[in-house]
Amino acid sequence: MSPFMLKTLLCRWNVTTLAVLACLVLISVLHLQQMHYASYLAKPIWYQQQKWDINRTTFRSGEQCCQPVNNIFLLKTHKCASSTIQNIIMRYGDRRNLSFVLPKEGNYLGHPKLFSKTLLPVELVPAFGFNVLAHHTRFDASAIKEVMPPDTAFITILRDPAELFNSMYAYFGLQNYTGATLQQFANDPDRQSFLQSNRYEQRFGPNQMFFDLGYDASRMNESAITEAIERVDREFDLVLITEYFNESLVLLKNLFCWDSQDIMYFKHNKRKADDRISRDVRKRLLRYNSADARLYAHFKAKLQTLIDAFGRDRMQEEVANLRLWKRLIYAHCVERMGESKQPETRAYSKHVFSIVLRPDVQLSAATAAAVTSTTQTQPTSRRNGSPNDKKAMTMITSATTKTTTTTTTTTTTTTRTTTTSTQAEENRLCADMARAELPYTERLRAKQRFLARSAQML
């Protein structure tokens, strides 16, 4: 159509006709978007069909080659040190440009509802699928397998149920909800029945780990609980234990073929108040959380079996190395645990400590370095304890030297460039290890949108 004919046609149309046409175009666009979303929900994400199985994985030693695990599902249980594990996994995926299953806002994926593919915002879904799911959700194995690759490693973390309930009761202010202190609550069957029937925010109550795993223990008899524990044992490749946190990380590192730097951590969401419970209260809480107590006992025993297979002496040596590296990195990065003025490291709750970085660790520079750095998208197989282990050791050596000697000043441009690059890398490691869950999630969301748009343009 020529410009003259188009001009003539437009002159004949009145404003009403143009408005109707615009509405029809808008409705068509919205309909196409809805069809696209519906088709996305209807079709499975395509992945190469292979399954990683921890039961066929042996513990390695020496210079054996292995393939790093990049597809990971973490069931983030409440008040089990899961935020610390989540930070480790988010750092690992962030460094390698892996794709994350993320909520549209906040840090929950459906909880207290079970996980569903319909929870995923389409603008955060890359065409090539996902690598990591590590945010709060209620476990539904079949729904999660719809969006994750077949070779995904399923992990979670459990904690002593009495200590978990004590921590949860204080963190979420359940005293205000039940009208009783923890000691009073432990001795009051009526209040216990109330919380069992009316979970706080429909999420928090007795047998919290069972609830996060997708079960309602209050509706289950002993045999059903036994079957559920056996099912969890089949569905999860590795269950970490909070009371054996370092040992659990050593097993994870070895089974996942990760480097020592990958499992370095600062404690996140550590409570300011360390309220101890009496033996009597502990006994009553274990009875009140009996399903969780059985679940915890089963996987605590299984972890001990894995440690035996790994080797007690070898485990003791690796845990000692982990603690040394962690202590030195902490001294290099952290000024104190307290109230942080940096939004990136400020804890969500006033009841827990924030990580306050040293003044010479520039968070903005670290963030910029993270954005501009080029990282490998899918690492290839490597030998145990090689590339990042050496990088971490270099950093630790520099941290130790900083406290004992002054480095010799060099004048060459190459040395200055290397020093600047090393400093930026160290700052990034400090910042990523200290970054709180919500700010890190926002950062990953922005990155995920970019990855999703880039994939659509290919």
Automatic annotation (TrEMBL):
Membrane topology of the entry: Single-pass type II membrane protein
GO biological process entries: glycolipid biosynthetic process
GO MF term set: galactosylceramide sulfotransferase activity
Cellular component GO terms, alphabetical: Golgi membrane
Chief site of localization: Golgi
Statement: the UniProt record of this protein carries the keyword Metal-binding: no
Alphabetical keyword list: Glycoprotein, Golgi apparatus, Membrane, Signal-anchor, Transferase, Transmembrane, Transmembrane helix
SUPFAM superfamilies registered for this protein in UniProt: P-loop containing nucleoside triphosphate hydrolases (SSF52540)
Cited Pfam families: Gal-3-0_sulfotr (PF06990)
Low complexity compositional bias, start-end: 371-381, 397-422
Keyword Membrane appears in the UniProt entry: yes
Cell location: Golgi apparatus membrane
InterPro entries per UniProt: Gal-3-0_sulfotransfrase, P-loop_NTPase
PROSITE patterns: PROKAR_LIPOPROTEIN
Region annotated Disordered, chain positions: 371-424
Protein family per UniProt: Belongs to the galactose-3-O-sulfotransferase family.
Protein's name in the database: Galactosylceramide sulfotransferase
Biological source species: Varroa destructor
